Amino acid sequence: MPYRHLFAHPGAKAFTAGNLIARLPMGMFSVSAVVMIAGARDSYALAGAVTATGLAATALVAPWTARLVDRYGQARVAVPATLVAALGSLALVLCVRRGAPDWTLFAAYAATATTPNTGGMSRARWAHLLKGDEGALHTANAFEQAVDELCFMVGPVLAAFLCGAVFPEAGTLAGVVLLVAGVLLFAAQRATEPPVRPGTRGKSPVRAPGMPPLLAVCLAMGTVFGAMEVVTLAFADARGHRAAAGLVLGLQAAGSCAAGLLYGRLRPAGPAETRYARCIAGMTALLTLPLLAASLTGSLLVLGGALLVAGMATAPTMVTGMALVQQRTPEGRLNEGMTLAVTGLLGGIACGSALGGWTAEHLSATAGYAVPVAAAGAALLLTLATLRPVPPVRPVPAVEPLH
């Protein structure tokens, strides 16, 4: 089995376990912050503004953190960066608990922007460990995408449970413990850490051939995800089922997780650019299902089924996109290149949240489902217009068969 073959490599299980623990909080922190701040200050507007500020700060800081990781090594940078982010989360809890002025909430949450891109660091380890074996790297990327989806399935549910059943700050505190423990365990696995090449600065990933249009597509893809989340929350709230919105969104993540694991068992054929266009085309087509379910039935149950199916296009699209990022990122800048892609997604999520929220409020939640379809269509047009086969910056040897 391909996945069993992956974890036969020495050290793979250990760094994956640490990374999984560290990544789970990425689906917890935003939900925990909103519940905690809205409960204490009775303002969802303030809670949303604080989390949006943290997202914007992350988009600015994350590429610089990733550049330091490439230059000085994962362990030397990730651990102190994580501790700074943990202090920011703890400061947020204290500010909320003590009734500090609103501006302190923004400052504290902005400090969490130093959180390292643990998913990118894990993918960099696989790229080093598999030494360019394209087939095995495809399987590893699919596994990593499935882990992302798993975290976004479990994280929000766990955060909501802790904040509601224990105390409002419990979700944030648990996230801090998991993040720090996971990064420490991950960083301790030095045998699988990619070597640092201090003399290899290379061209910035932003200026590498083929990267700008790829990052623009990431921005459009993020718009899909941001709009889908907000519109689904509005759709469920309008029908008096706000509590069920998380479960409905979890179905979308579940579909993506299952498709990602299946996609990892397949052997990719043809240029990655062609596969990427096909994946985005499939995603655009499947995103019409939630729009049809919402407009024709108005049923949250039917919508959940539509989201489950629509989510199956997400992981293959993201896996192929990350493969392109890895191919086009200059040697020695892999963490930075993948973090730039994540930054593009974050920027798109912010735009999609705003656009989806405006559409749901001024038109209807049902009409809001047209926003993800339009964003995916824009990503497809951009892909067809700009993405052409580019010689890989990172050398890719012949594919070795997996046993």
Strand content: under 5%
The number of E-state strands comes to 0
Per the CATH scheme, the topology name of the largest domain is Growth Hormone, Chain: A
Order of helices and strands: HHHHHHHHHHHHHHHHHH
Describe this structure in words.
This is Major facilitator superfamily. Pfam families: MFS_1. With 403 residues, the protein is mainly alpha-helical. The protein folds into 2 domains: 1-131 and 151-196, Up-down Bundle (Growth Hormone, Chain: A); 199-396, MFS general substrate transporter like domains (Growth Hormone, Chain: A, Up-down Bundle). 75% of the residues lie in helices and 0% in strands. It has helices at 2-6, 12-23, 29-41, 44-72, 74-98, 102-110, 118-130, 134-165, 170-187, 211-238, 245-264, 272-286, 288-296, 300-310, 314-328, 334-362, 365-368, 370-386. Residues 395-403 have low confidence and may be disordered.
Write the layout of secondary structure elements.
Layout: H1 2-6, H2 12-23, H3 29-41, H4 44-72, H5 74-98, H6 102-110, H7 118-130, H8 134-165, H9 170-187, H10 211-238, H11 245-264, H12 272-286, H13 288-296, H14 300-310, H15 314-328, H16 334-362, H17 365-368, H18 370-386
